[in-house]
């Protein structure tokens, strides 16, 4: 049976003097941050909100601080294998790597993040968000148009 226990190395970007961040893309580094080891996190039973509780217990932040969590795939750099930890599904994604690697690096960013991994589509440059102002009958027209186009066809 594969073990789901893993040790986390938490990199925190809050310093008393400097607020540090990831350096720009290509050759990205994480500079001036603190590191803390958290032992034996069970990925099978570990909900994402427990990560916030661990950070509070370590005294890194106040309860109202907005935090962004990321984990780095072992043996890869920070440019291409940095994934978010924002939902329980992300913890399960992290769990795929636990059986081979017993130390997972977790990065915490305070306040805002410049990384394009958090709550974004991987192709965010191709996405255009446009507000469409239509009367409430718009959905009815779309349905009727769809029905007219599909009459006589098996869907």
Automatic annotation (TrEMBL):
Domain of life: Eukaryota
UniProt cross-references to InterPro entries, sorted A to Z: PB1-like_dom_pln (IPR058594)
Domain (PB1-like): residue spans on this chain: 29-110
Protein name (Swiss-Prot/TrEMBL): PB1-like domain-containing protein
């Amino acid at each position: 049976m594969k073990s789901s226990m893993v040790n986390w190395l938490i990199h925190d970007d809050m310093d008393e003097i400097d607020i540090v961040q990831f350096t720009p893309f290509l050759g990205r580094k994480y500079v001036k941050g603190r590191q803390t080891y958290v032992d034996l996190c069970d990925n099978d039973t570990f909900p994402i909100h427990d990560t916030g509780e661990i950070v509070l217990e370590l005294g890194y932040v106040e309860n109202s601080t907005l935090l962004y969590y990321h984990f780095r795939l072992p043996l890869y750099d920070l440019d291409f294998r940095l994934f978010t930890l924002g939902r329980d599904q992300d913890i399960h994604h992290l769990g795929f790597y636990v059986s081979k690697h017993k130390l997972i690096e977790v990065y915490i960013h305070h306040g805002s993040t410049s990384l394009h991994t958090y709550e974004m589509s991987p192709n965010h440059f191709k996405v255009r968000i446009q507000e469409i102002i239509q009367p409430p009958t718009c959905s009815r027209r779309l349905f009727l148009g769809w029905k007219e186009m599909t009459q006589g066809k098996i869907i």
